[in-house]
# Entry
Amino acid sequence: MLHRPDHGEAMVQTELAIIRNGWGKEDPAYRRLFSAQFIPGGTPEQINWFSELERISATPEVAGRIFDAVQHTDVRALLPQLKVPTLVLHARGDRRVPFEMGCELAALIPGARFVALDSENHLILEHEPATEVFFKEVSAFLGDPRPRSWRRKTQSAERTLRSIMGSVESSPAYKLLAIAAVVATLVSFAVWLLRG
# Structure
């Protein structure tokens, strides 16, 4: 993502220092920088929840490695080789990843469909009209009828995720397993992208 005009090496190093020095602390001030970029339209409860999710989902070292890898990975040259149906959804006011990058991504993938979401959040929130658009577009893309009870499913998923978070936070074994799963997923995805 270093090809972003607003995100040069100096900014990457600043964010990396914040991750390495503040990510695992009980004081959420450091993580709130990222929460404010991912869900600026979130309620205080949602921002606190997301900040806590960040803290327990990765150690500062792992979070730093993931961030650094994402910033220094550029797959734009590979995108024209994709030969699969592709749907790209991107929020117009996204503060984490500029809207122009979503447009560029879709433009580089042959036949990709691009849908702009009216939101400032990188992670859209259930109360936003963009959420309806998101579910409608994904359902149409998959050839499925629009989910009738997506709100109930979202609330059920949130309860499940909170339960899992409680288990992860209280168990060192779950923390190690979660870290290993994230690292394995990222490595597998990177290898898949590079092999084309």
Q: What stands out?
A: The chain is about 60% helix and 5% strand. The first strand starts at residue 87 and ends at 91. The mean pLDDT is 79. Residues 32 and 51 are 6 Å apart (CA to CA).
